[in-house]
Design brief:
The chain is an alpha/beta fold. The protein is about 35% helix and about 15% strand. It has 2 domains: about 170 residues, 3-Layer(aba) Sandwich (Rossmann fold); about 200 residues, 3-Layer(aba) Sandwich (Rossmann fold), CATH 3.40.50.1260. The structure holds adenosine monophosphate.
Length: about 400
């Protein structure tokens, strides 16, 4: 696996695919610069070697050229985060770009306009990728968030950099973390799968069931399992067509000697609202008109015990409707348990969509070993899929 350390960028132009798909407010100000911060180590390495950087990214989902999706809005923020005044050019291919790239000096950074202003980017157009490839001597992919897409700048472009392509430090860290959990893990390994639906997590379960010792299930998908086992779940979220699948998972786990832990109690509510009436009951005995929106205290205790004994922990998905304060306790207690296990030497990886939001909201980011920057890319990695953006560098 080629990384930044295999290259000296002195007098070289590094063409870096970053993920600057950051949230903007109505005044086009960056409201969360995590993704820019995440790309910083790679950019700094190139500059410190005596090279220059050409940064390319997408922003949002523009239909053609739309000013509100211009990366020009974030150029000042990038300058501030990196500590170098960034140049910006209002296209990503063409003569105007060629001129600026030509005059780019060591120590300088150029940010290209939104790649998705050209439909060829998402189409994975090879001619477009070749045009982009002219802007660098070395291609670095540091955009984990789009590594599962076979787009021009994330995968197709790599073929024009035979021997001159590598992973940026962020992407390398993502790959190492996943590897540490799935392939090179210290046992016991525990995966916590929460979130809304069984259907969106089934690919992960199938891939990890033989690799982990414990699977903790929480969130909305709990109730498909409980109903399949004959429990009463009231009006809780359920996927009736996935009940057989839930039973199959339980059977497979038994065969593979993987322990599945289901919530034994639930905080239930008489409406999907923070102001609803609540009570805590056995997960199998939820009355009609009530729905389970969080795990109960006994469950939290059980889960904490499993986590305390784990040496490797993967967390994907909240245990309840954490966006509402009254149903956030289970997710917070789980985060505390993972933080404690991490402090005691376990490796913990948090990744995929809403668990990252929960970790940030409750301040666990610094207390776990690694928080992934990629939602879909993380899910696909955990499902055991090969990501086009990663494969293109390895080829
Ligand atoms: P996911 O994107 O699959 O990780 O799902 C995350 C979403 O699942 C969050 O928005 C949670 O509010 C939601 N969720 C968690 N637990 C429940 C539950 N018991 N009932 C309904 N939604 C839930």
């Amino acid at each position: 696996m080629k990384t930044l350390n295999d290259f000296n960028f002195e007098n070289k132009k590094a063409l870096i695919r970053v993920d600057f798909n950051v949230p903007l407010n109505d005044e086009f100000q960056v409201t969360d610069d995590t993704r820019i911060q995440a790309a910083k180590p790679t950019i700094i390495k190139v500059l410190e070697d005596g090279g220059s950087c050409v940064l390319m990214s997408h922003l949002g989902r523009p239909k053609g050229v739309e000013d509100k999706f211009s990366l020009g809005h974030i150029a000042d923020k990038v300058s501030e985060v990196i500590g170098v005044q960034v140049k910006f050019v209002n296209d990503c291919i063409g003569e105007s770009v060629a001129q600026v790239v030509e005059s780019l000096q060591p120590g300088e950074i150029l940010l290209l306009e939104n790649l998705r202003f050209h439909g060829e980017e998402k189409a994975g157009d090879i001619a477009f990728a070749e045009k982009l490839s002219q802007w660098g001597d070395v291609y670095i992919n540091d955009a984990f968030g789009t590594a599962h897409r076979a787009h021009a700048s994330t995968a197709v472009i790599a073929q024009f950099f035979e021997g001159n392509k590598c992973f940026g430090s962020l992407l390398a860290k993502e790959i190492e973390s996943i590897d540490k959990v799935l392939n090179d893990s210290e046992k016991p390994v525990t995966a916590i799968l929460g979130g809304a639906k069984v259907s969106s997590k089934i690919g992960i379960v199938e891939n990890i069931i033989e690799k982990v010792d414990h699977i903790i299930i929480g969130g909305g998908m709990t109730f498909t399992f409980v109903k399949a086992l004959g429990g009463s779940i009231g009006n809780s979220l359920v996927e009736d067509d996935k009940m057989q699948l839930a039973l199959d998972i339980l059977k497979l786990a038994e065969e593979k000697n993987t322990k599945i832990h289901l919530p034994v109690d639930a905080v239930i509510a008489d409406a999907f609202s923070n102001d609803a009436n609540t009570q805590t009951v056995d997960t199998k005995e939820i009355p009609d008109g009530w729905m389970g929106l969080d795990v109960g205290p006994k469950t939290s205790e059980n889960f904490a015990q499993v986590i305390a004994e784990s040496k490797t922990i993967l967390w994907n998905g909240p245990l309840g409707v954490f966006e509402m304060e009254n149903f956030s306790k289970g997710t917070i207690e789980l985060g505390n348990a993972i933080a404690e296990a991490t402090a005691n030497g376990a490796f913990s990886l948090v990744g995929g969509g809403d668990s990252v939001a929960a970790v940030k909201q409750f301040g666990f980011g610094e207390k776990v070993s690694y928080v992934s920057t990629g939602g879909g890319a993380m899910l696909e990695s955990l499902e055991g899929k090969t990501l086009p953006g990663i494969e293109a560098i390895l080829k």
